[in-house]
Automatic annotation (TrEMBL), chain A:
GO MF annotations, alphabetized: ATP binding; ATP hydrolysis activity
Name of the protein described by the UniProt record: ABC efflux transporter, ATP-binding protein
NCBIfam families per the UniProt record, alphabetical: PQQ_ABC_ATP (TIGR03864)
UniProt domain ABC transporter: residue ranges: 3-233
SMART domains tied to this protein: AAA (SM00382)
Highest taxon of the lineage: Bacteria
Keyword Nucleus: no
Any Pfam family matching the protein: ABC_tran
Keywords noted in UniProt: ATP-binding, Nodulation, Nucleotide-binding, Transport
Automatic annotation (TrEMBL), chain B:
Similarity section: Belongs to the ABC-2 integral membrane protein family.
Alphabetical keyword list: Cell membrane, Membrane, Transmembrane, Transmembrane helix, Transport
Organism: Marinobacter santoriniensis NKSG1
Record's protein name: Transport permease protein
Lineage of source species: Bacteria, Pseudomonadati, Pseudomonadota, Gammaproteobacteria, Pseudomonadales
Keyword Cell membrane appears in the UniProt entry: yes
Length: 240, 267
């Protein structure tokens, strides 16, 4: 699924948060949106998920304007938010069924798809446990399983590894990369952690609402004359 | 989107509301304790003080318990709706409200479905309360239990929409305590729930007019008349009209233009 962001700007009151962003997401590729806290990543996600209204600019999903065809766009997007968006009192399966219903799937279909996803994430045997009993890493997996239930072609993850230990972070990152490879899923992975980004990823560096770099990690390093992405990030944003 | 997809979505939202309700069973009990205390303790104390003359829809002298029962039905719905609004603010802070808003189905449909889901739970509680009220001789006609259903649903929709509207304006969970003081108590006490309006007019004409303008008064009267198999078109009409206005305002409050995302700037 191709996404084109054209001249996208957004202000909170008189404070500009996103400034004339222009970029494209390539189908079936892993894109890392890298930016320090406050760079505007969550606002960009808010616009991509229609939680915020576009003020200026355009978002095109497969060439179609999101503002004109919001329902079509929303059917194709799966999202994992920065903050937990699971109902802790409900079981894993009940959370999945609820999400599937919101996308108009029948209960039978939802159960089949839900169990398939849970099996893939190694959580099927915990399907009937309340989410509250799961650890942070498992909750994140449930959120990804949920985001994939309606078979989206674009998966958005906003700081999905926040609060997880190093091993869980790595495992989650690997898992999403595998999904991207095996299912030709377009992924936008927002993070402020350089170690989650590889040189062959498509990298977007966002800082103070501006897109400072866009290309493969390798190309960006060469452009800035840096040894690695960490140095590039430091050079461009002044962040460590 | 196909009609069947709307139906699956409708069922999903209803199911979730019941599951959440089941998870919080103590809420059910506490929601009943409050009106039962009013019915059994408060009414017993005030029965002697407040004489009730014969007023429609009653065709004879009634006990104070009988008078306040419809108001207490409204009270259950009022508190439940505000509790629902509280849970929506909580959901928004935790993020689960975003799951709802990200559905490809139209937002007005999603929000009205959620209102209905919350309403169904409230109506169930009202019926349990009415059954318990039989113990203190509050005995409306048998068909009154059926006739009152539309009034209860309408009241729950109106108050649910009010709760939804409040939820759009409250930025933080902590601010919700103010809702108790500025919405629930004035709405309940400045209505015909506890005393007939003619008594209020005798005591304070300006307060009488406040009560007349309070939509909760009309919701309670719609319940009262329906429970005794009488039709109060004015009460029903006003309640329905206010429901539509509040629902439109609440739905507008959940447009993307007004959505707040935790973690982003709001100023």
């Amino acid at each position: 699924m191709s996404i084109d962001v054209r001249h996208l700007s957004f202000d909170y009151g008189t404070t500009p948060v996103l400034k004339d962003l222009n970029f494209s997401l390539k189908p079936g590729r892993f894109h890392a949106l890298l930016g320090p806290n406050g760079a505007g990543k969550s606002t960009l996600f808010g616009l991509l998920t229609r939680l915020l209204a576009i003020q200026r600019g355009e978002l095109l999903f497969e060439g179609e304007s999101m503002a004109r065809f919001p329902a079509r766009a929303m059917r194709r997007i799966g999202v994992v938010f920065q903050q937990n968006a699971l109902d802790l009192d409900l079981t894993v399966r009940q959370n999945l069924l609820y999400h599937a219903a919101l996308h108009g799937l029948s209960r039978k279909e939802a159960r089949t798809r839900g169990d398939r996803e849970l099996e893939r994430f190694g959580l099927l045997e915990r399907a009937n446990e309340p989410v509250r009993l799961l650890n942070g890493g498992h909750r994140r997996r449930v959120e990804i399983a949920r985001a994939l239930l309606h078979h989206p072609s674009l998966l958005l993850l906003d700081e999905a590894t926040v609060g997880l230990d190093v091993a869980s972070r790595k495992a989650l990152n690997e898992h999403v990369r595998a999904l991207c490879r095996e299912e030709s899923l377009t992924v936008l992975w927002a993070t402020h952690l350089i170690e989650e980004v590889r040189r062959d990823d498509q990298v977007l560096i966002l800082h103070q609402g501006q897109l400072l770099a866009n290309g493969t990690g390798q190309a960006i390093c060469e452009e800035t004359g840096s040894r690695d992405l960490s140095e590039t990030f430091h050079v461009l944003t002044g962040a460590g | 989107m196909k009609l069947s997809q709307y139906w699956h979505c409708f069922l999903g939202i209803q199911t979730r509301e019941w599951l959440r309700f089941w998870q919080q069973r103590t809420r059910f009990a506490s929601a009943l304790v409050r009106p039962l205390l009013w019915l059994v303790v408060f009414a017993a104390g005030f029965r002697a003080v407040l004489g009730i003359s014969i007023i429609p829809p009653y065709d004879t002298y009634i006990t104070y318990e009988t008078y306040i029962a419809p108001g207490l039905c409204g009270m259950i719905i009022l508190f439940n709706s505000m509790q629902g609004a509280l849970s929506m603010v909580y959901d928004r802070e935790l993020g689960s409200m975003r799951v709802l808003l990200m559905s490809p189905l139209p937002r007005p449909f999603l929000l009205v479905t959620k209102l209905l889901a919350m309403g169904v739970v409230s109506v169930g509680q009202v019926y349990v309360f009415l059954l318990l009220a039989l113990l203190v001789d509050v005995e409306p006609p048998l068909w009154g239990y059926v006739a009152v259903l539309p009034a209860l649903v309408l009241t729950s929709l109106m108050l649910g929409a009010l709760g939804l509207l409040i939820a759009t304006w409250i930025k933080q969970l902590e601010n919700f305590a103010g809702v108790m003081n500025f919405v629930i108590f004035p709405m309940f006490f400045m209505s015909s729930a506890l005393y007939p309006l003619w008594r209020m007019q005798e005591a304070s004409p300006w307060l009488y007019w406040v009560c007349q303008f309070n939509p909760f008064t009309h919701a309670v009267e719609a319940i009262r008349f329906a429970l005794y198999l009488q039709w109060n078109g004015q009460a029903f009409g006003i309640t329905a009209g206010v429901t539509v206005v509040l629902a439109l305002l609440a739905t507008a409050g959940f447009r993307p233009q007004r959505t707040r995302i935790p973690g982003t700037r709001t100023g």
